[in-house]
Specification:
about 190 residues; mainly beta; Porin; 1 helix; about 10% helix; about 65% strand
Length: about 190
Amino acid sequence: MRRIPLGLVALIALTAVARATPVAVPPATSPPRPFAHPHAGLGGGLAIGTQRQDGVDGWVARLDYEGFPVLAPRGTFGGLFGFVPALQLWRAGEDWGVGVPVAIALGVRAPGIRAMALVGFEAMLVDVVADDTGFGLYAPLAGARVAVDVGGWYAGADARVERRWQIGAPDHTQWQASIVFGHTWETKPKAPMR
């Protein structure tokens, strides 16, 4: 008769015991909740106004686009933060120019009104000043806007100052005051998944 080694018997016995022993399984957990974005808005508007440059009066027209990643819901008091890029055309006497101003907006929204401070730059500009054509990048701007806000439609005033530095034409400062009209479409925050 053949003998089975004692080590093999012990290995088989331990394997059988290990298979019969229950393993602790952690309780099922719910998936992590995704971040719920705040109330936000997208919109656009038109600004038409007057400007003064080197003692000469003129006009300015701007087509604004608005992107507010943070916008207090309509009818409540809260903050707003976003970006207001635009296309701009101006003329003062024989001088004129076009540009792409990009402003960061920070302010508040309350029932029926919104107010914001603006700081940014002219991403690109082309000006004809004193019969010289100039090209500039990142010319600084600052301003403020206050508007009546009803049902997402707004009307108000916008004031800005820009230092238009450039190559090829004289640098100059513009003071602008405009009336603004527009609409902001609001997005509601998505509730976290449960």
